[in-house]
């Protein structure tokens, strides 16, 4: 059996709420500038799963590495993905959804696996879920199984939340499971239409979508993106309507912006898309406050706007996505961040 390979890409939220666990709506796109690649091959003997084998030359080397990469290696993501995949397969066999012979195949066939990623860490580009998605896709191909994208997205989320204790929502996993520009509706009504299993996902694969020029501006020296969520989740779930009400109202506003952005995008109304992106961030800023948003993020939002571009978080913080209308604007942005801790890319969708 030849080596099986799979690639999953980073993602950017073009509109809506980055923390999508609030029953809201969002539109996101793959960012093909950055990817996670997983390979799997038959291997006699014991399973070979990636582990952290990094060795440090000095304390300074260790410090620089952890500053850039955090304290967890991606090997744990591969292991969590593998565990969740086999758990799903065995459950499907027990429920009569899969032929029991797959269990024999799994028990008899061991494999080796390795991964590689260049997705910047801790800037809200869905690097963790990309590794898990690519791993599960490799395992599907290796064992000749097919898991529909809606279910795959749920499995990826479960691997992160249940196995690893990572706070996460479905947005990233849906985009990576479908590998396309996706409109997502996570409202209770949307879930009800799908027996409570997943929301409404509108995939733009078969439509001609002429996306505007998108840029990604990100911090090369970020802090943990998860910190940006602050206490909004607890406020959202608070029994006192005076506390929960403003947060729920904001989430409704994000959903409205998403629907309007979808209409404007399909109509090719770039000016409207830009205005909606700016309004999206401004509303988020009101909700979270400048202290939580952080100085670096505020600076990254301001730089593009000062030259006439739109800007908002691409995820939960650490990276900004927006629209530029001319090459001169993009070059001016590059000029303004020269010598800073920021970097800009044209988004390859």
What would a concise description of this structure say?
This protein is α+β, with helices and mostly antiparallel strands and 349 residues long. It has two domains: 4-203, Ribosomal Protein S5, domain 2 (2-Layer Sandwich); 214-346, GHMP kinase, C-terminal domain (Alpha-Beta Plaits), CATH 3.30.70. It has helices at 59-69, 75-94, 101-108, 127-142, 149-163, 171-178, 188-193, 232-236, 241-267, 270-288, 290-293, 295-306, 327-336, and strands at 4-16, 25-42, 111-117, 182-185, 200-203, 214-219, 312-313, 319-323, 342-346.
Reconstruct the topology from this structure.
Elements lengths: L3 E13 L8 E18 L16 H11 L5 H20 L6 H8 L2 E7 L9 H16 L6 H15 L7 H8 L3 E4 L2 H6 L6 E4 L10 E6 L12 H5 L4 H27 L2 H19 L1 H4 L1 H12 L5 E2 L5 E5 L3 H10 L5 E5 L3
Antiparallel strand pairs: 1-2, 2-3, 2-4, 4-5, 6-8, 6-9, 7-8
> Based on the structure given, which CATH architecture of the largest domain is correct?
2-Layer Sandwich
Number of domains: 2
Count of beta strands? 9
Q: What structural class is derived from the secondary structure elements?
A: alpha+beta
The overall pLDDT average reads 89
Report the oligomer: single chain
């Amino acid at each position: 059996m030849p080596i099986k390979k799979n690639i999953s890409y980073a993602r950017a939220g073009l509109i809506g709420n980055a923390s999508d666990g609030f029953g809201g709506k969002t539109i996101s796109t793959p960012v093909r500038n950055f990817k996670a690649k997983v390979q799997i091959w038959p291997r006699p003997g014991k399973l070979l799963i990636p582990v952290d084998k990094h060795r440090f030359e000095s304390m300074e080397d260790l410090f620089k590495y952890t500053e850039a990469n955090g304290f967890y290696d991606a090997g744990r993501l591969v292991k969590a993905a593998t565990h969740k995949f086999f758990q799903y397969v065995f459950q499907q066999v027990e429920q009569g959804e899969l032929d029991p012979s797959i269990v024999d195949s799994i028990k008899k066939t061991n494999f080796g696996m390795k991964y590689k990623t260049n997705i910047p860490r801790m800037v809200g580009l869905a690097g963790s879920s990309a590794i898990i998605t690519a791993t599960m896709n490799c395992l599907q191909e290796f064992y000749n199984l097919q898991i529909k994208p809606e279910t795959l997205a749920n499995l990826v989320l479960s691997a992160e939340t249940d196995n690893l204790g990572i706070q996460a929502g479905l947005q990233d996993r849906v985009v990576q499971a479908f590998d396309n520009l996706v409109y997502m509706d996570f409202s209770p009504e949307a879930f009800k239409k799908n027996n409570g299993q997943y929301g409404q996902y509108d995939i733009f694969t078969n439509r001609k979508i002429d996306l505007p020029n998108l840029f990604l501006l990100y911090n090369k020296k970020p802090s943990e993106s998860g910190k940006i969520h602050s206490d909004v989740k607890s406020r959202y779930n608070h029994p006192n309507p005076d506390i929960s009400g403003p947060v729920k109202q904001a989430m409704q506003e994000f959903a409205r912006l998403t629907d309007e952005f979808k209409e404007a995008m399909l109509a090719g109304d770039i000016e409207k898309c830009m205005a909606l992106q700016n309004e999206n961030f401004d509303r988020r800023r009101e909700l979270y406050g400048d202290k939580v948003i952080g100085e670096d993020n505020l600076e990254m939002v301001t730089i593009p706007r000062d030259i006439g571009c739109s800007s908002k978080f691409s995820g939960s913080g650490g990276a900004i996505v927006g629209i530029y209308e001319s090459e001169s604007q993009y070059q001016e942005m590059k000029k303004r961040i020269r010598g800073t801790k920021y970097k800009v890319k044209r988004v390859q969708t």
